[in-house]
Write a structure and sequence with these properties.
The chain is mostly helical. It is built from 18 helices and no strands. 64% of the residues lie in helices and 0% in strands.
């Protein structure tokens, strides 16, 4: 009797890659698990071979393939496409390289972090691709800060982001993205970086500082954010609302509630405020969300419902009794 083997033994990596390529080019949506597992076993050092396999596709097909595997990686666990995405960082098409960076952001491996750092530090890479890589490094910093990832690369990631923020020669959008990413780090020098950027005449850095305040999640920033809620720039107002939601303090709820009586508030700002109330989850916030379930704007109603569910979920986490017996309903 032949012994059944697991996915990891059912297909050689390159054979699996060829079948995945064939499926994508044929318009197949559902990819075979054994082929996906094969691609996830591509060995470090095989990047050139992978790149050659994909060179027969046009740029739109390569983009579609990377996008599909990125979706698979985001939706399912157990796959590591680090080598595959890393191989496409040398693609001739910037949009394909950007998608490869987006895929690496999901891999959560030392190899992925190393590839992202190399992209950020490249003098030859286009600004848009580098900015996507900087954004991905911000997510690495977030995972490390929260204890969701190994800290072995933390120093290098934080150092790279800090260097970019402090480099006046760097593209302002890239600096702003790095600032937003580094905001999550609990170090005193981060506060100074955020404050300096907020006072900057560069609009992108100013906005990046507002976003960094939210990622920093410190109530220290609430008075500053309250001022940004009445800014002339709607992007800054929306970023401030989102930051207040990320901080999650009940002290932020009254600031958000004032927006509902502000005739200058845009529809997008109101929807952002509704979502932020769900993140705050205080009694006052929940009462307002209940009222907003009958709002005339269907988008606001839907956002309020989703925010209420978010607030309820957060409340359950804070309620010790909710975790005592997760299956208590079965005994009732």
């Amino acid at each position: 009797m032949t012994q059944q083997t697991g996915h990891e033994d059912e297909a050689e990596p390159l054979d699996g890659l060829r079948r995945v390529i064939g499926a994508i080019t044929s318009g197949v949506v559902e990819l075979e698990p054994e082929d996906l597992h094969a691609v996830s076993r591509l060995a470090a050092g095989s990047e050139n071979v992978v790149h050659q396999q994909l060179s027969e596709l046009d740029s739109a097909e390569r983009f579609a393939l990377l996008d599909r595997l990125r979706e698979v990686g985001a939706e399912f666990g157990g796959y590591d496409f680090t080598v595959f995405f890393g191989a496409m960082l040398t693609d001739e098409d910037a949009s394909v390289r950007t998608m490869a960076v987006s895929g690496l952001a999901l891999c959560e491996t030392p190899g992925a972090t190393a590839a992202l750092l190399a992209t950020v530090r490249s003098d030859e890479e286009e600004t848009g691709v580098r900015r996507e890589a900087v954004n991905a490094l911000g997510e690495v910093a977030m995972r490390v800060e929260l204890g969701w990832a190994a800290s072995e690369d933390a120093g290098e990631v934080v150092g790279a982001l800090r260097t970019i923020v402090e480099d006046d020669r760097e593209d302002e959008e890239v600096r702003a993205t790095a600032l937003s990413g580094i905001g999550v780090i609990s170090e005193s020098w981060v506060t100074g970086l955020i404050e300096d950027a907020f006072e900057s005449d560069a609009a992108s850095l100013h906005l990046g500082a507002v976003q960094a305040m939210g990622r920093n999640a410190d109530v220290y920033w609430l008075p500053v954010l309250e001022g940004s809620l009445v800014a002339e720039d709607d992007d800054e107002r929306i970023a401030a609302v989102q930051a207040i939601g990320e901080i999650g303090s009940e002290d932020g709820a009254p600031m958000l509630l004032e927006l509902f009586d502000d005739p200058s508030a845009s529809e997008e700002l109101i929807r952002a405020a509704v979502a932020a109330l769900g993140e705050v989850g205080s009694e006052e916030a929940v009462e307002e969300l209940e009222r907003l379930r009958t709002h005339p704007d269907p988008a606001v109603r839907a956002t309020a419902q989703a925010a209420l569910e978010e607030a309820t979920w957060l409340d359950d986490l804070d309620d010790p009794s909710s975790s005592q017996d997760p299956f208590r309903w079965a005994h009732e």
